[in-house]
Specification:
Strand content: under 5%
Structural class: mainly alpha
Number of strands: 2
Helix content: 55-70%
Shape: globular
Radius of gyration: 16 Å
Largest sheet: 2 strands, parallel
Order of helices and strands: HEHEHHH
């Protein structure tokens, strides 16, 4: 149950400094949020169906106000690049999970590198 606590911390940070911090709720099934976090009625829940394309679609929806919008094909290309890099990263780190801190950091780097290399490139 640490996720509700972490969400609470994110919400409080946004109240403390709304220009520097915002929050979103991403969930496989929006009804799960209603069961565990009923006090968030009226908040947007980005339901992604537990699939990568759904997650990417909802991230694009959550950041619709950003100046630069990426197309789904660009997001999917970055996802594929990171997915391809994952086995090498896990092996390099001697890890079994992508949720270990060093592995996650390497995945973030791989995603940044892929995004930069894919700017304006069709796939």
């Amino acid at each position: 149950m640490n996720m509700p606590l972490e969400l609470g911390l994110a919400v409080m940070a946004s109240y403390h400094d709304p220009k520097q911090h915002t929050w979103c709720i991403f969930e496989k099934d929006y009804r799960r949020v209603l069961k565990s976090l009923g006090d968030l009625a009226g908040s947007d829940v980005y339901s992604h169906d537990g699939r990568p394309i759904g997650v990417l679609r909802q991230i694009a929806n959550a950041f619709v106000l950003e100046d630069r919008q990426l197309e789904m094909r660009q997001l999917l290309a970055v996802y594929r690049d990171v997915e391809t890099a994952l086995p090498t990263i896990l092996k390099k780190r001697g890890a079994k999970s992508c949720y270990e801190a060093a592995v996650f950091r390497d995945l973030v780097y791989a995603a940044q590198k892929a995004a930069i290399s894919r700017r304006g490139v069709s796939s």
